[in-house]
Please model this.
Amino acid sequence: QVQLVESGGGLVQAGGSLRLSCVASGLFFSSYGMSWYRQAQGKEREWVARIETGGSTGYADSVKGRFTISRDNAKNTVYLQMNSLKPEDTAVYYCKDDRGYWGQGIQVTVSS
Model:
């Protein structure tokens, strides 16, 4: 049974930073790509960032240059460092692995 648990969300002022963490239980974490998604109220869930098993990364245009995804395979953890946050970054953030498992989501709220 694989479980993904996000942490690190909260309320921050525009221009601030947060770091999200997603800890995965179960085996073979290092064998799978990991992604972050987000869903703002009333909108569809959208892809934010991805990290491959080898460390290659990709970002949505809306967060490129502000967000950084990373992983620590020894800790079964993927991170999302979010800098220069904007009110439009307000959403529930989810991590997902390539097997299709999702975390429960964590709220990020950016005040103007």
Q: What stands out?
A: The first strand starts at residue 4 and ends at 7. The mean pLDDT is 96. The two ends are 40 Å apart (CA to CA). The CA atoms of residues 21 and 79 lie 5 Å apart.
